[in-house]
Amino acid sequence: MTTRRNLLSLGLSGAALALVPLHARDAQAQGRAIGAIRVDTTRIAAQGWGENAQLIRVAMERQLATTLGPLYRRGAGATLLVTVKGVWLSSYAGGSGGGKPSGGGGSNDNFDSDVAVLGPRGQVLQSFPVLSVVDASSGGAWYRPDVDQRRVAALIENNALWIKRYLGG
C-alpha cells in the first residue's frame, strides 16, 4: 500500500533525477568549440618588440590551448583569432606608492588584444576587446634577470583567462 509519505518521497526523488542532466553539463556544452588558435603579433613587432613579438605569439598560443581546456578541440570548431595590439611594462616593478595623495600612480603592466571567433567561411561569429592589467610585481623580484619575461607571462595568462571567460568557458 502506498502512503502519502512514500508518494511524496517518490515525487521529490523524481524531481531531483530530472534536474541531474542540467546540473551535470560539461563545459563543452556551455562554450563555443574552438578548433584552431591564431595569434597575430605584427602590430607589436612594429611597435618595437621585434623578435620578442614571435615569442609572445608562441606563448599566447600555448597558453590559450592550455587555458581553454575542453573548449579547444583541434580541427573541430571555429577559429580563435587574437590580435595583440599592445604590451606595456611599467618602468618600476618594486612598489607603487599608490594610495597616498602625493604617491603617484601605480605600477601596472598592460596587455591589449582584440579577439575574433571566425566561422568556417571566415565570418565573424563573435568579437570583443580584452585589456589585461596586472601589477608589475607579478613577475616576482625586480632584481631577477628574467623578471620581464615572467611579467609578460603573467599578462599572457591573465589575457587568456579573460578570453576563456568571454567565450563562455
Explain this structure:
By secondary structure, the protein is an alpha+beta fold. Helices cover 42% and strands 24% of the residues. It is built from 5 helices and 4 strands; from the N terminus they run H-H-E-H-H-E-E-E-H. The chain has a 4-stranded mixed sheet with strand order 1-2-3-4. A hairpin with a 5-residue loop joins strand 3 and strand 4 (124-135). The radius of gyration is 23 Å and the shape is elongated. Mean pLDDT is 82; it is low at 15-29 and 98-103.
Topology (elements, then pairings):
Elements: H1 4-23, H2 27-30, E1 34-40, H3 42-49, H4 51-68, E2 78-88, E3 108-118, E4 124-135, H5 147-167
Parallel strand pairs: 1-2
Antiparallel strand pairs: 2-3, 3-4
Kindly summarize this structure in a few lines.
The protein has 169 residues and is of the alpha+beta class. It has 5 helices and 4 strands, in the order H-H-E-H-H-E-E-E-H.
Protein traits:
5 helices, Rossmann fold, 4 strands, alpha+beta, elongated
